[in-house]
Amino acid sequence: MASKIFLDANVLLDLLLRRSGFSAAKDIFQYAISGYVQLYTSPAVIHITSYYIRKHYSVRETKQLFTRMLLHVEVIDCDHQVALTAINSSIDDIEDALQYYTALKHKLNYFISTDKKLKKQAIPQLPIYAAAEILTKLT
């Protein structure tokens, strides 16, 4: 069965803006295209990412980028109970907590982010890796 991976905003920004993490993010997408992994994100991550992408591309180009990306990424969301759990968790950043606990609720295998503070707060059921780190786990 394919590993289920949550993508945080910084990974999508690396990919779509060709930032320093582009190569690793691209490789993760290649794994998804080949069916080796399943990728997930949340509406909030799309919202955050689109804000920054829109500063670099036209509305039309931004929509095209997201349409292509969403061919390989499933959007998942949290419910009321998950939101309460996230807000009351040990994760200080509510936005990060919502993403992390959404991934937990959906029983994903990995959470990909470059947020070092969030990584320190991960629990064993859902480890957090940088994009380059997860590639070593998958190969």
Query: Any idea of the CATH class?
Result: Alpha Beta
User: What is the correct CATH architecture?
Assistant: 3-Layer(aba) Sandwich
* CATH fold-type name: Rossmann fold
Q: Number of helix segments? A: 8
Distance separating the two termini:
15 Å
**What's the rounded overall pLDDT mean?**
95
- Main pleated-sheet profile: 5 strands, parallel
Structural class: alpha/beta
How much beta, percentage-wise? 5-15%
Helix share, percent = 40-55%
Radius of gyration, CA atoms, in whole angstroms:
14 Å
The strand count comes to 5
Order of helices and strands: EHHEHHEHHEHEH
Please, could you describe this protein's structure?
The protein is an alpha/beta fold. The chain has a single domain (3-136), classed as 5'-nuclease (Rossmann fold), CATH 3.40.50. Helix content is 54%, strand content 13%. The chain has 8 helices and 5 strands. The chain has a 5-stranded parallel beta sheet with strand order 3-2-1-4-5, sandwiched between helices. Strand 4, helix 7 (116-120) and strand 5 form a beta-alpha-beta unit. Helix 1 (9-16) runs parallel beside helix 3 (43-53) and helix 2 (22-33) packs across helix 8 (131-138). The protein starts with a strand and ends with a helix.
